[in-house]
Amino acid sequence: MPYIIEFSDEFEKSFQKLKKKDKNIANQIEKKIISIIENPEHYKPLRNILAGYRRIHFGSFILIYKIEKETIKIISLDHHDKAY
User: Fold this and answer.
1) CA-CA distance, 75 to 13, in Å (whole number)?
2) Which of 7, 17, 49, 67 has the smallest CB count inside 10 Å?
3) Is 10 exposed, middle or buried (0-12, 13-18, 19+ CB in 10 A)?
4) Cβ density class 11-32: b for 16+ within 10 Å, e for less
5) Per-residue pLDDT averaged across 19-45, rounded?
6) Global pTM?
């Protein structure tokens, strides 16, 4: 099933900032976003207050996203200490 992908303003801002600082991590994130589109259920679901969301680790960064029917919403990208 083809998914539509949406990026939050928060993610866009964080990603652009990170892209300037560390292109290697930015490239990893782009590759993982492609893998999310191919298999969105693959990554770890979150619990409790963040139930319904999923996460991916990139070194000390975490990308949080949500699957809603045919749409994948990329919510945030932040340092692990700030993400939760």
Assistant:
1) 11
2) 49
3) middle
4) beebbeebeeeeeebbebbeeb
5) 93
6) 0.88
